[in-house]
Amino acid sequence: MPSRVAVVTDSTASLPARLVERFNIITVPMQLKIGTELIDEAHVPTDRLLQALEAQIPITTQPPAPDAFFWAYQDAWAKGAETIVSVHVTPTLSPATDAAKAAAAKSRVPVFIVDSHSSGMTLGFAALAAARIVQTGGNVQHARSVAERRGRDARVLIYVDTLHYLRQAGRVSAAAKLFGDALSVKPLLTVVNGEVEPFGKVVGRERALSKLVDKAVALAYGRDVDLAVEHFAAEKEGRELLLLLQKRIPHARDIVLTQVSAAIGANVGPGALAVTVSPF
């Protein structure tokens, strides 16, 4: 029997397909404008995005296509949903939440919008937590409150080879813009109130990743947490980071390895790695 509560998110959640399918999460794709072509990011292969970045073709991220959220809500209603929890990228990073709110106003069933306060697996774990509640028979109020708490309490730690792509996309705070462009200096970033903020800078990639792991261990200490390692076009490095975290944080419930969505990848650039620590 279909659940009476549906969970919807947007593709910046970067959830692996196996989890989307297992927990019946409806995912609405963001859009990328590559040059003059506007495409659902689900249809943008990694190789094409890398080629466009290397060729310095202008790339911008866009909210989902007009009415995409509306039809997602309609589809959930048609399958028996009586209420919907819709969990999204924070409005500071994307207008997708505004599009979801506009669609909710036209929906046949009540839609409760949740701001994840970030994107990536901070959003992913929030949507996943709501879906877990739904699958175990929880009501919409419980699913909504858990999603809100998971988004609010999670922390993402980001390593990028260069700030070039984030600067180009206008995604870094004034503080982060002060970082120099020396190739040996690797910025470490986090997201605070929807703004990409620095939490450190280290000379050398290995030292930077070591500091990122130490910070993740400190955040997870004494807490029940889920962890995600996110990467863009750096699966090998992501797996290595995953192994380090498994050794240092053995009490983590779930550890997910995933490539970020194309919309995030266009902003962080190839080689980017991130760790999301999500208390539950």
UniProtKB/TrEMBL annotation:
Tagged with keyword Disulfide bond: no
Pfam family, one: DegV
GO molecular function: lipid binding
Keywords, comma-separated and alphabetical: Lipid-binding
TM regions (residue ranges): none
SUPFAM superfamilies with a match to the protein in the record: DAK1/DegV-like
Coiled coil: none
PANTHER family registered for this protein in UniProt: DEGV DOMAIN-CONTAINING PROTEIN DR_1986-RELATED (PTHR33434), FATTY ACID-BINDING PROTEIN TM_1468 (PTHR33434:SF2)
Record's protein name: EDD domain protein, DegV family
Organism of origin: Lentzea xinjiangensis
